[in-house]
Amino acid sequence: MSLTAKDVAEITRLLEESSFDELYLEMDGLKLSLRRGAAASLQPGATLVPPTAPPGPPATPSPSPPVLSPVAPAGAASAGAAPAAAAATPPTAPPADPNSVNVPAPLLGTFYRAPKPGAPPFVEIGAKVEADTIIGIIEVMKLMNTVRAGVRGVVTEILGRDGALVEYGETLMRVGKSD
Amino acid sequence: MQIRRILIANRGEIAARVIRTCRHLGIETVLAASEADRDSVPAGLANRTVCIGPPRPTDSYLKVGTLVQAALGVQADAIHPGYGFLSESPALARACEQQGITFIGPTATQIEAVGDKLRARAEAQAAGVPVVPGGAVESVDAAIALAGQIGTPVLVKAVGGGGGRGMKRVDRLEDLRHALELAASEAGAAFGDARVYLERFVTSGRHVEVQILGDGQGEVIHLGERDCSVQRRYQKVIEETPAPGLAEEFCAGLHAAAVRFARRLAYRGAGTVEFLVDVQRHQFYFLEMNARIQVEHPVTEAVTGVDLVAEQIAIAAGAGLRLAQSEVRRRGCAMECRVNAEDPSRDFQPSPGVVREVHWPAGPGVRVDTHIASGSRIPPFYDSLMAKIIVQGADRTSTLAKMQGVIGEARVSGVATNLAFHAAVLADPEFQAGGVDTGFLTRFLERNPLAPQAVVHG
Fold it and tell me: Is B411 a known active-site residue?
């Protein structure tokens, strides 16, 4: 018995609709832990951990089995990949409805929602955006790259967490299209 | 310092190979993959995969800032660069040094020292290691004078080149001017360094290289040589150890020269010193040093039992050399065939696509390093290496026989491969006799025109 990417997506949806913040599921061979991010929206990623994994990081020469503990900082957006199943899951979940468009990260780096620490975010849920509206910044080695919405509409969901690593192509926001 | 988590800044079989050693050591791995490699075999082996960019290497695997940012973002202690891509990039090594990330490889300064081929030549001379007659040229007239001294044919080589890139053979002095100009402009475009130098073209040469490990403090050991003379357009096809037919004292001289060279640099990590063995003159010359793990390293691992990637990691972690020279023992012979997705009958044109079914050989003394399973994609953006098949045996005859059996066992459908070509080379009397020079494959192809190869579908 193993979890498919589809199963994880379904469990994620159930958690999203519930009033809980965290979910741990242990089955034969697999451990699934889901956690809501700091933002109100749920992270699309999940971490699959085999139950045999020792708790701490292993010592270098130890003959212990490979450790598949989460390597992402808690709540980071993307999937910690155990063999194949989770690795195949792209960090871009399908948009909730056909009128919604994913705004992908144009490059890997640290995502910032505001122009500087403490400043109000570029956009919030409900904000109207044009294709050239700045929705965030991605920092790569001190170089700040402006991220634009690329589409006209209303921000319906914000998935990229402020200060977190985002991968290339990872969904930062969803925008409901308006014509 | 302990290394707990390594960012793998590479793809393909070497990514899988490095991840496997990390798993054996209990070290976590994060694979930095392009969009094309997200669902690859190494992605399945790593603890986590982060997507660093679009498929084209310049947009992903060659982006220093992105890789360093990825390492910082996933809190990796170290970066393993594999081979190719940024493995010999002083910029990546330096960025790691600045960001407090351990670069699993030599220092940026050492990479620069060996990356500049003229400087490497000078270092070799200073270490008492013979170099091919030749040298730097300031002008076309100086070049013609030098070429007159060393005799034609000569090679015009780019200072920033290596591995066969940026080289031109000149047979007549009157062609030298044109070749120099062409080589300089090509080198400027390809390596960002237009400097070129001259070397005597050795007509009958063998490519023999020595694997070394250095602790970065001046202690260096060698793990024997590899003969990589079976080459096509400077691309190695079959490698083996020991080098067939070379006297023990001759090889000992090679080993000692490699160690002297690496000691002079206080080299850190795994590296390879390449030599040209002049068969006619029975001499060897320093060619270049590769400051990284090499494709053919498993040949050395097969006869020594040393996991070179594990030693790279140990050295990077500050553990130094974990074995003394006297503890390095080499048993029997080993041989490697590089299986590429290419069509030998169409001038070895790459054959990207989806691998339908694959069966790799197995058995005692057989190792297959690969990232290709049934259903794997071979993207058109990268090299066509599918697998390295390595066999080990008591002597060359039994090793060669084993390789022939093993190559016959391998099955790949969906893309063209050079498996049949390997079988033909292994059966060739000249190769079977051993000790071929780098001109062997050209001669082989002239006497064995290749029949068009049918791609097995289904």
Answer: no
